[in-house]
Amino acid sequence: MRGSVIRSMSFVALALIATGSMDARAVEPATEAHGGGRDADKFPPPVPPDQLSPWFGGGGGAVGGSMFDLRCEYVGGVVTDIGNYVEGLALECLDSRGSWVGQTPHVGGKWSTPVGLTCPRGFHPSGLYGRAGSYVDALGLICTNGMVSMGVAPMRGGRGGDEFYWECPAGYSFSGVVGRAGSVIDALQIRCKYDP
Q1: Which residues, listed in sequence order, are joined to residue 177 by a DSSP beta bridge?
Q2: Which of 15, 76, 151, 175 is exposed most, by the fewest CB atoms within 10 A?
Q3: What integer best gives the mean pLDDT of the chain?
């Protein structure tokens, strides 16, 4: 069916060209404008979409709290408020040169005793690990130097829930956290952007 439609469209185009109703230059192969042929340099290849981890926490992100989407060009660290659960969260943001550019808005409950999670010199954040059940119970930062990945210090928070560990895949950088929060962080996903 599809082939006959294309042949019919080509026949109509040829008929229009033959009668002078259509310019022959208007009938170029689709590959000319979409990644092949002489105009390929005018159209950069599409950037792959961000990748999100599975949901960690209660309800798979479907229930509890309000949605949030914290984004940075690159995540440089995590500021969190931790008791028996992860109560609040903000991200420290870096630019492409590795310079600090600011902090995202705080989500979750009130700050009581904020704790900064950062990577040691020569490493940068590449994901999160922790524990999650009905809420996000504990959180730690995964750091890499491009060859070796490691969790930073002990994770902070409560002992409930199941362990999770999620690091951005090769070719992607840790760029944000999506989730739901009320008085605590109910659930979260790690956002990774394409960064070859």
Answers
A1: 70, 190
A2: 15
A3: 80
Please identify every stretch of the chain with a pLDDT value under 50, giving residue numbers as ranges. 1-19, 21-35
- CA dist list (Å): 24 to 16, 29, 45: 9, 12, 27
Task: Name the DSSP class of 30.
Answer: G
The radius of gyration computed from the CA coordinates of the chain, to the nearest angstrom, equals: 24
Alpha helix locations (H) across 104-174?
none
Cα–Cα dist 65/55, whole Å: 14
pLDDT of residue 160: 85
What is the per-residue pLDDT across 11-39, written as a single tens digit (0 to 9) for each?
A: 334 344 444 544 444 444 444 444 455 66
Instruction: Give the pair of three-digit tokens for residue 68.
Output: 């949030």
Instruction: Please determine, looking at this structure, whether the domain spanning 51-194 carries the CATH number 2.100.10.30.
Output: yes
Q: Kindly list the domain boundaries of the chain, sorted by start residue.
A: 2-42, 51-194
Query: Is residue 136 exposed (0-12), middle (13-18) or buried (19+ Cβ within 10 Å)?
Result: buried
Question: Nearest 5°: phi and psi at 51?
Answer: -105, 140
Q: How far is CA 122 from the centre of its chain?
A: 23
Q: How far apart are CA 120 and CA 30, in angstroms?
A: 50
